[in-house]
Specification:
Structural class: mainly alpha
Distance between the termini: 52 Å
Shape: elongated
Radius of gyration: 21 Å
Length: 261
């Protein structure tokens, strides 16, 4: 039991150290104009290709489900005029960042862990160190920068598609009116809600990529070790993002309470 706890804390410290080191390199290289932007663009495009289509396919039914459930509830209590606000806030504040975390962890994070894990077991990482090249600076930093750029954009896409689906369901099938939906949404939602959602997505993206890189760089025991690294990256990344979401949500509720506009 104690060995497992010690191992867990050691793994956490190792991941935290990798994240801090990657951020230090990222800031330093950007300031000194030495950041490999070409690698960052390639990684960002890869993240886009593996997450955009799933984001659309997930956000549309998610927006429909939220709209149906909220519309049914508001209809029972005679508050159909706030259906747009309730559904929209659910998508913005919680749904979109969580869906972004799931997609970044399950698709992009798994691919990053698999790529770095394969490089590790082929001893490419050791070869880089032998040549005096820092693998964190060469491999982790471009991926970190790519996730930082793509995570909020992915969140915006999910918000747009989720709200559009909810609007279509409310107006087309729940006897809602466009004006009522939009006015109620504008009364409750604010720019602060969007900012919170984007900050959440940014944090989740950083957590996912750092965990994935750490698991990949520490893969061992051949192909089986790579598979274990990928599984660990997905599970740890998503669970960590959910845990952080609880903390961030509580802080937002304390310092940014919901007000009717």
């Amino acid at each position: 039991m104690s060995d497992g706890v010690s191992s867990g804390f050691a793994s956490f410290g190792q991941t935290l150290e990798l994240g801090v080191l990657a951020f230090v390199h990222l800031v330093r290289d950007v300031v000194t104009l030495r950041h490999p932007w070409r690698d960052t663009v390639e990684q960002a495009w890869f993240v886009v290709t593996v997450t955009v289509v799933p984001a659309v396919l997930v956000s549309i039914p998610f927006g429909i489900i939220v709209s149906v459930q909220v519309g049914s509830l508001t209809d029972q209590i005679g508050a159909t005029s706030i259906a747009g606000a309730a559904g929209g806030l659910g998508v913005i504040r919680q749904g979109a960042p969580i869906v972004a975390a799931l997609l970044l962890g399950g698709a992009a994070g798994a691919a990053v862990a698999a790529d770095l894990g394969a490089r590790t077991i082929r001893e490419e990482i050791d070869a880089l160190r032998t040549m005096g090249i820092d693998p964190v600076r060469r491999l982790v930093v471009p991926r970190l920068a790519a996730f930082i750029v793509i995570a909020p954009l992915l969140c915006i896409l999910i918000i747009f598609m989720g709200l559009a689906a909810g609007y279509a369901i409310n107006v087309g099938f729940q006897s809602g009116t466009p004006g009522s939906y939009i006015s109620s949404f504008a009364s409750f939602a604010s720019v602060g809600d969007l900012i919170v959602a984007l900050v959440k997505a940014e944090i989740f993206g950083i957590i996912v990529v750092v965990v994935a890189c750490d698991r990949g760089l520490n893969a061992a025991h051949g192909p089986r070790g790579v598979a274990n690294a990928v599984n660990a990256a997905v599970v740890l990344g998503v669970v960590s993002a959910f845990a952080v979401n609880v903390v961030v949500t509580q802080l937002v509720a304390m310092f940014m309470p919901q007000r009717l506009g």
